[in-house]
Amino acid sequence: MTMLTVTASPSVSDDARAVPEDTAAPCDIAVRDCRTEGDTLALRASGALDHFTLAPLRVVLAVAPVYGYRHLLLDLAGLSFCDSALLAVLSHWCMRGRSMEITAASRQATRLLRLADAHTWLMPPGATERWSSAGGGF
After folding, report:
1. What percent of the chain is predicted at pLDDT more than 90?
2. To bridge 86 with a disulfide, which of 19, 22, 52, 82 should be the other Cys (CB 3.0-4.6 Å)?
3. Which element (helix H / strand E) includes 134?
4. Residue 46 to residue 53: CA distance in whole angstroms
5. 133 assigned to some structural domain
6. Is there a contact between 92 and 60 (Cβ–Cβ < 8 Å)?
7. What pairs with residue 6 in β-bridges?
């Protein structure tokens, strides 16, 4: 499997581009390990996610339903920063009748999701118990 990193830098432009993982700038947001199985899309995000750096994730999630993906598995363990723009993107995904699960979350992502009480409006029933027992979720 070839691993690609989709990166975007707000100082360069808002367009997304695919580059080999080892050439990605360390400060860029990256969507890594984009895997699929049936109607499930599994993504791993890393770096800092805010209004400007969310462009790659927005693109991936905008295109995914066109190809039949209705369920999202999202690993946020590699995030060093995230703000309410992430909540908006995730909410947009779920408001369209699609489902998602956060399989892991960094301390920063966990804090944001807890402050927003996201498990009550974003996650499937029973998911918070599984994440808590796994130690990586919120």
Report:
1. 46
2. 82
3. helix 127-134
4. 11
5. no
6. no
7. 18, 31
What is the H or E stretch that residue 62 is in? Answer: helix 55-63
CA 130 distance to own-chain centroid: 19
Name the token pair of 10: 């707000």
Phi, psi of 114 (to 5 degrees): -70, -45
Q: Give pLDDT tens digits for 11-68.
A: 333 334 444 444 444 445 567 678 899 999 999 999 999 988 898 899 999 999 999 9
Report residue 58 CA to chain centroid gap.
Answer: 9
Residues forming a β-bridge with 60: none
Rounded distance, CA 138 to CA 133, Å? 10
**Two tokens at 74?**
């999202």
List b or e across 54-72, with b for residues whose CB sees 16 or more CB atoms inside 10 angstroms. Answer: bbbbbebbeebeeeebbbb
**By residue range, what is the domain housing residue 26?**
4-125
| Rg of the chain in Å (alpha carbons) | 14
